[in-house]
Amino acid sequence: MSNENKSVWNSNITFILAMIGSAVGLGNIWRFPNVLYSNGGGSFMIPYIVSLFLLGISFVLVEYAVGYKFKTSLSKILYSVYNKLEPVAWFVLTIVFLITTYYICVVGWDLIYVVLSFTKAWGSNPDLFFSQSVLQATDSIDGITTIVPAVLASIVAIWFVTWAILRTNLNDGIGKVSKVLLPLLCIIVVIIVIFSLTLPGASIGYTQIFTPDWNALLNPNVWLAAFGQIVFSLSLGMAIALTYASYLPEGSKLTDNAIVVAFSNSGFEVFNSIGIFSILGFMAMTSGIPFNELVTEGTGLAFVVFPQVFNVMGPSANIIGPLFFLCIFFAGITSIIALLEGVCYSISEKFNFSRKKSATIVCIVGVCVSSIFATGAGSLILGVFDAFLNNFALLFAVLLECIIFGWIYDFDKLIATLNENSKIKVGKTWKTVIKFILPICILFLWIQGILSSLADEDPVSITIKAILLIVLIALPIIFTKLPAKNEDFYKEVQH
Ligand code: PFF
């Protein structure tokens, strides 16, 4: 992947599908419905749409403009902007890599459920089944010495699939996989939503989300939640959009593409949540469990509440169940490859490795790190990784990126890049958003994240967080200090 044989998307549609595939992931399927419900239902759409336009699309545009203009990896871009900034790139990429190691584990659990769902093998108590039979979870860190074979096998399988896709050239790997999985994902979601609307009690669910609580709009936390969801869902700051845009040919319509991608991603999560809520409405009616006790997020929703629903759904659950878990699986795979592409690209560019070599190295190290989550203490450690990396480290990285591109780099050049070919033009408002509004919002979200982390005084999580912090400081220094094998790396890029 050195500059001589630089990858280029074979069509704009491949780029758009790969971008949508990167954004649509677990966050859309199991995070959004809960965030929507707990933050005012229908009225949440107002802060959500404002955040989408004002902050989400704005930041995606920065990543598109930078990637397209520099046509190189994040590490080389930051080195070119100002050579002392290279560690920031490795810092971002280390976070992205670590997030992927546990994201893969969750997709691994899902893969197990794809298989289990054909026979509803979770039995009558899915909660107990998930924690005791699947995760074999221990309450303490001592469980780290026991391997859970099924989870390990699943993690290894997903790393293998990831490796096979990443090592293949851009259009045959990521391009083809996105072109196949994304349409399949959409078909499955349409089937699930149509089916769910026919269930008795569905209206108990979907009316909940479309019944607005206007008072919620006065609560600043609702606005922060909307913004947080956009950051997560659009995978902001993870160098994904930047990397994918660097593979675009000259003449691409950047702004128009960004809007298509952002709308598709949000459309997907809103549409999908109609299905999720209708199914939960059915459950509330059938089992008498209050609706608010059913609406949860993350693993609780996918691996506990949904199996409970499938248990009472009758024979149709034998089709809808596997489809639901397959949907999470497809969404997960396209996000995983997107997360790692930027990491591999930076390694290839600096050390002059082929795509195959960097994919192999990253995946081998990845399997080793992910195996920690295949132990009895796996879910406990995963929770700490997630809280620390998402609420704290990633937001800090997005903040740094805003400052670098908004203040250190000549921002007007990015405006010119975006306006070159796009029908939709950007100007001063965008500049103000990136320089002032976005960093302030991220700062608030970040402080909120730190405060919630501080509340956690458990010595095990403090130790894990301390280890992560050391890794996040040490790895960027090491990667920066290692001399580049590619002599072009230190040459200035035209910008
Ligand atoms: N945007 C994707 C999702 O919603 O699942 C991918 C992703 C986002 C992965 C954030 C990891 C993450 F921390």
Automatic annotation (TrEMBL):
The entry's keywords: Membrane, Transmembrane, Transmembrane helix, Transport
Subcellular location: Membrane
Signal peptide residues on this chain, from the entry's feature table: none
Membrane topology recorded in Swiss-Prot or TrEMBL: Multi-pass membrane protein
Major subcellular location class: membrane
The keyword Transmembrane helix is annotated on this UniProt entry: yes
GO cellular component: membrane
Transmembrane spans: 12-32, 44-67, 88-116, 147-168, 180-202, 222-247, 259-284, 319-340, 361-385, 391-411, 432-454, 460-479
Pfam families: SNF
Family annotation (NCBIfam families): Na_transp
Name of the protein in question: Na+-dependent transporter SNF family
Source organism (scientific name): Methanobrevibacter millerae
